From TrEMBL:
It comes from the Bacteria. Belongs to the multi antimicrobial extrusion (MATE) (TC 2.A.66.1) family. InterPro entries: DinF-like, MATE_fam, MATE_MdtK, MdtK-like. Pfam families: MatE. It is found in: Cell membrane. It is a multi-pass membrane protein. The chain crosses the membrane at residues 46-64, 93-112, 132-153, 160-184, 196-216, 236-257, 269-290, 316-335, 355-376, 388-406, 412-431. This is Multidrug-efflux transporter. Keywords: Antiport, Cell membrane, Ion transport, Membrane, Transmembrane, Transmembrane helix, Transport.
Length: 444
């Protein structure tokens, strides 16, 4: 099966993937913006939403990595014209994923207070963390199921249906956020932070139902669990395990950043919550092209089309850089108004503005890392991705963070460490890609 690498074919995948990719950060950003403006204990609510959101993102990213593994295997078999050989694998992978998510849910629900005490949360912030997480955590298996279905569609070179699901889920979440956080006079009482948690949970449930319906109606992939296990399940598990380890290292960086910001004080964790939500929003925005690289890269590798793979990497990187430049311009033009979307506390906003320029200037480096990250996932190069992230975190981010803290840089140290982290990731992937595939390319 031939794969055309051009503007139309890339953007047919990238644009819907971009829209669906930003759904999760939109959920978090909506919670952050609305919670940050709660008239009662807004600062404490914002801090709690940021801490819990970071922890939930860690769990989802760690256990949601089967999405990339499913996508890589399906796209490679599609490119090789042998898709029938793996049609029963997705149902087996989804079952394992949901089973693992339930284990995590049941082991964390009884030690919530202890978990968030590790983030230096205390007093009213800790109280809010417990109540917020107690509701949000039940959406965890739903999100992992939805992610797995997205991986199936992505492997089939279809990012349109994930976009539809994500748009409907994000739109519903925004409506429910306003209704449940602030209340509807005469109908719904104001639930404040717990209202934001319920809004996210309901939206996640609707997204999971839509994903199930579209998978059944629009693909030939069966969701019936059958035995024996598919021959590719072993590879999927090992790919996923490498991504689990990788994501643990990734989240070690994110969690340390949250912990250090919390230690600095309430205004710093509030500012960090805003900054990291914008960072993630931009990341998922750029990740649309990474998703296209994931889908097309796996298919091209399966077809052994190395010229097409080389062209894909160059073209998709160019488009990603254009997107990052647009985001940079938007960030600088609306530098101050953006902050007011998230908080009405001047002390939080001034702290956020002091480091926002670092977030903006780091976008091109993020693009380099995310684009090649997506291509490597599509090719199934999970072991190398694991090693790069371990090196970037433990030899780059952590030393840079604590050196900056030792030198008295405070909040700046956190975001300088993020830039160093992404530089190591991006340059390591480019070096590996050139070294491995340039000798195989006939027309570079």
């Amino acid at each position: 099966m031939s794969t055309q690498v051009n503007f139309k074919s890339i953007n047919k995948l990238a644009i819907p993937a971009t829209i669906s990719g930003i759904a999760e950060p939109i959920l978090s950003i909506t919670d952050t913006a609305i919670v940050g403006n709660i008239p009662v204990d807004g600062l404490e609510s914002l801090a709690a939403a940021g801490i819990v959101g970071s922890f939930l993102s860690m769990l989802i990213w760690v256990l949601g990595q089967t999405r990339s593994s499913i996508s890589a295997i399906i796209s490679q078999y599609l490119g090789a014209g042998r898709l029938d050989e793996v049609k029963n694998m997705p149902a087996q992978a989804i079952f394992l994923n949901i089973l693992l998510s339930l284990v995590v849910l049941l082991t964390t629900i009884f030690v919530i207070e202890e978990i968030f005490s590790l983030f230096n949360a205390s007093g009213k912030i800790l109280e809010y963390c417990v109540s917020y997480y107690s509701i949000r955590v039940w959406g965890f298996p739903l999100t992992l199921f939805t992610f797995a279905v997205f991986g199936i569609f992505r492997g089939l070179q279809n990012t349109f249906y994930p976009m539809v699901i994500a748009m409907l889920g994000a739109g519903l979440n925004i409506i429910l956020d306003f209704a449940l956080v602030y209340g509807v006079e005469g109908f719904i009482p104001a639930l404040y932070l717990e209202g934001a948690a319920w809004a996210s949970l309901i939206a996640q449930a609707i997204m999971a139902i839509l994903a199930l319906i579209l998978l059944i109606k629009k693909t030939d992939i069966s969701i019936k669990l059958t035995f024996p296990l598919n021959k590719e399940i072993k590879r999927l598990i090992f790919m996923s395990l490498n991504l689990f380890v990788r994501t643990l290292a990734l989240n070690a960086a994110l969690m340390l950043a949250v912990r250090e910001a919390t230690t600095l004080g309430d205004r710093f964790i509030g500012a960090h919550t805003i900054a990291v939500n914008l960072w993630l929003f931009a990341a998922f925005f750029i990740d649309g092209y990474a998703a296209a690289g994931n889908s097309m890269g796996g298919k091209l590798l399966g077809a052994e089309d190395y010229d097409g793979l080389w062209k894909l990497a160059k073209t998709i990187f160019k488009y990603g850089m254009i997107v990052s430049f647009v985001l940079m311009c938007f960030g600088f033009i609306f530098y101050r108004p953006i902050g007011y979307l998230f908080s009405n506390e001047d002390i939080v906003l001034n702290t956020f503005y002091s480091i926002f320029y670092i977030v903006i200037l780091g976008l091109p480096m993020n693009t380099l890392a995310f684009i090649f990250d997506g291509i490597f996932k599509g090719m199934g190069e999970m072991k190398y991705l694991r090693n790069v992230l371990l090196a970037a975190t433990f030899l780059g981010f952590i030393p840079c963070l604590y050196l900056g803290m030792y030198l008295g840089l405070g909040f700046y140290a956190i975001w300088i460490a993020f830039v160093v982290w992404m530089m190591i990731r991006g340059f390591s992937l480019v070096w590996k890609f050139r070294r491995k595939f340039r000798p195989l390319v006939q027309n570079p």
